[in-house]
Amino acid sequence: MKISYFKIRDKFDFSPDRFEIGNPLIQSWHFNHNHLFKKIYSLPACEYNAFYDYHLHYFLGSSPDQQQQFFENFSRLTSERIAYYKMQDPFSSRQKTYQSNLIKLESFQSFLRSIDQWHVFDPLESVIAEKSRLIDQLTAENAQLKEQLKAMKEYETSEKIGIVENHLGTFVDLLLQMQELTLPVEKKTLLRVQGKSAWYKLLSRYFLHGGNPIPIETARNYFSGKDDDASAKGTRVRKEHKLFIISKMK
């Protein structure tokens, strides 16, 4: 079964879509390409994209996800027709028509080149060079990521600090108190950070509770609001877990 790439007008259809191709009376598969290019010769360059999309949409109706196949076929037909006109006798009585058609085809081929995302028109050397460039780029990015990973591992520890079971709240209470510490002379907050993420990520990343990892959501809930704010969502440290008070020396 032959693949129908282009929308052919129906027989005896005298009101076709302006982008349909073919003859309403005499229809032959062998002449479809002639009708295709006859239509292209009549189009202004500003309508090339709409014409291409019209037939692409028709083709995809029976061949989904085959945009590349459609493009390659259309490009091949165009290149073959250009080659045909270039081989014609320059002294032929029809040379003026040939030249006019050739100019139109080369204009349409320029449009095809502008939408060529599959490198159909690129010479093999250019494709290889582009792939080599991408490989070099990815190799450099991979090396950079490896260096970043190596640098990050410098801050990794072989083990995490364990918090006694049932006393996660006790340790969190100490962290919350540390947020409020103020230097007695400078009257400045000792520890400064924008937001709360540094605190709960520190807790989740470097500490264990009863020998088990502390989920990031569990840690985040403790730092969602002030401990004395009853309206704040999150986990509040229970009174019986507040065992220590951090205070300045007298």
Description:
The protein folds into 2 domains: 29-124, no CATH class; 161-241, no CATH class. It is mainly alpha-helical and 250 residues long. The model has no long low-confidence stretch (mean pLDDT 90). Helix 3 (67-86) packs antiparallel against helix 4. It is built from 8 helices and 3 strands. The protein is 50% helix and 3% strand. The protein has helices spanning 32-42, 48-62, 67-86, 95-114, 124-153, 168-179, 197-206, 216-222, and strands at residues 161-163, 207-209, 212-213.
Residue stretches low in confidence (pLDDT < 50, at least 5 long) are none
Question: How many separate helices?
Answer: 8
Q: How many domain units?
A: 2
Helix content: 40-55%
Number of strands: 3
User: Which structural class do you get from the secondary structure elements?
Assistant: mainly alpha
CA-CA gap between termini: 95 Å
User: What overall geometry do the principal axes of the alpha carbons give?
Assistant: elongated
The quaternary state of the protein chains shown equals single chain
Concise account of the structure shown:
The chain is built from 8 helices and 3 strands; from the N terminus they run H-H-H-H-H-E-H-H-E-E-H. The protein is mostly helical.
Overview features:
250 residues; mainly alpha; 3-stranded mixed sheet; 50% helix; SlyX family protein; coiled coil
